[in-house]
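Notebook entry, structure prediction.
Reason for the run: the old model in the group folder had no record of what sequence produced it. Starting over properly, with the input documented here first.
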Amino acid sequence: MTELALVPAGQVRVEGLVTATGGTLTIVDGGGLQLTITPTSSAKVTKGTATASVTDIKVGDRITATGTQNGAGVNADTLRIFDPSAMKSGMRPGMKPGTGNQPAPPTT
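New structure, fully documented this time:
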């Protein structure tokens, strides 16, 4: 599924796998580019639909950061931690658990 999101003018949005944490985060994007993410003091952090904090971000997490470009990095106002448990093992709407993702029979 592709997500379409508008980013305000003057801001950038990056996504990648977290490889280091601390005062700043290091991520590697899908093309292998390493970026430094510096959360702002008022950064909004979420995991799924829940509020989270920067300290909840761990090495191996996939995140999206939105903010202003700072050299080869981003000063992030918004950080989103992807929550793999929210994916429900690849289930799609209308699929019945335990059936190899076969459509559920219609209800009458």
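Summary: The chain is about 0% helix and 45% strand.
The old model has been moved to the deprecated folder.
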